[in-house]
Design goal:
This protein is α/β, with parallel strands linked by helices. It has four helices and eleven strands, in the order βαβββββββαββααβ. It is 16% helix and 26% strand.
Length: 250
């Protein structure tokens, strides 16, 4: 494994070094002393395994297509922005707009996340993206969601009190949101509706939660069998009438 210290490197130099290592055939890279370096892993492809010690900056793994990134700490905003495939596993907490326009791959967070997580999340054919949050999520979770799966477990102290914020699923027109436990009606945004869990939902939860639990040393069986609130779109065109002509209507 190649080990690199980020101390004294700006984000441009660090990302150039990582791109060169990947191009040279490195398959495992550990980066120590990461502190706010932006764009780590942006645009990288292939089977590279990247371990980050510290706190990476914004847009970690943006446009990434294949690699596995493990963060042994917290992460800032916009993790996995428009990511195509791969895995980002954060062993701490993360900031806002995690998974913005996520098109494929998986993002796992052991702790809490900020606002607008999964905004504009979508799904390529045969490559549905998934975000699993171990703790709590802020307001506007799954805003304008168009595909994929969002799971919030509420395992942290904050999560047990309030696993999700307000305006949950506002404008969602695809995908599914699962929140462990109950969600008060007043937290739902316009466009999100409830459905009862089915056996197929349990199978989907297990498919996502088993590898997540292996990563973070949790028990998947107890989590899969627990109660969940399932949210789906009420319509696939929640704001359609805002963009149609009303000329001639009474």
């Amino acid at each position: 494994m190649l080990t690199v210290s980020a101390r004294g490197l700006d984000h441009v130099s660090l990302n150039r070094l990582l791109a060169e290592a990947a191009a040279a055939g490195e398959r495992a890279v550990r980066v120590t002393e990461v502190l706010g370096h932006r764009y780590i892993g942006t645009g990288l492809g292939g089977e590279l395994s990247l371990t980050l010690e510290g706190t990476p900056g914004e847009d970690l793994g943006a446009f990434m297509d294949g690699p596995t990134v493990r963060v042994l700490g917290n992460a800032q905003n916009a993790v996995g922005n428009t990511m195509n495939s791969g895995l980002i596993a954060i062993h701490g907490s993360a900031g806002d707009i995690l998974g913005h326009s996520l098109r494929g791959g998986r993002i796992w967070v052991r702790g809490d996340v900020g606002y607008r997580v999964g905004i504009h999340m979508k799904a390529q054919p045969g490559n549905g993206p998934a975000i699993v949050v171990g703790g709590a999520a802020g307001d506007f979770l799954g805003e304008y969601m168009a595909g994929g799966v969002l799971i919030v477990l509420g395992l942290t102290d904050q999560g047990r009190q309030r696993p999700v914020g307000n305006w949950l699923g506002t404008g969602m027109h695809g995908g599914t949101i699962y929140v462990r436990g109950s969600v008060p009606e007043h937290r739902l945004g316009k466009g999100a509706g409830r459905e009862e869990l089915t056996d197929a939902d349990r199978e989907e939860l297990r498919r996502h939660l088993e590898p997540y639990c292996w990563e973070f040393c949790l028990d998947p069986d107890s989590l899969v069998s627990d109660s969940y609130t399932k949210l789906v779109p009420l319509t696939y065109r929640p704001y359609g009438r805002l963009y149609v002509s009303t000329v001639g209507e009474c």
